[in-house]
Write a structure and sequence with these properties.
single chain, mainly alpha, 51% helix
């Protein structure tokens, strides 16, 4: 039947046309956003509260860290210095949920 074949071909062409139109619209929008971004002056950084959200395991031995500047860094001298957490601490932190999922929650599947 020739009618069925032409319907399939026309549907295929419609899908290709729709995809091409969508691609053009997205490209047009991307170019518009890129052009607008070059005209807008950059905003000054907003004032964030001077609090660190994660501190890790801080011990007395960590206070002996030798640094040539006061505070968290040269650019943030008023913030307190918090050393990076140890690798063992981070491994435990990330592996605890995985261990819980694979050793405990699999009993209920």
């Amino acid at each position: 039947d020739m009618g069925g074949e032409s319907r399939v071909r026309s549907t295929r062409c419609n899908i290709q046309w729709i995809a091409l139109t969508a691609a053009r619209a997205m490209l047009r929008q991307a170019i518009r956003v890129a052009a607008l971004g070059t005209r807008i002056a950059p905003r000054p950084p907003c004032a964030l509260p001077q609090v660190r959200s994660f501190a890790g395991a801080v011990t007395k031995a960590d206070e002996k860290a030798v640094r040539p500047f006061k505070g968290a860094s040269r650019s943030e001298p008023e913030m307190e210095y918090i050393p990076e957490p140890s690798m063992f601490y981070m491994i435990c932190l990330f592996s605890a949920p995985v261990a819980f999922h694979f050793w405990f929650l699999t009993k209920f599947v």
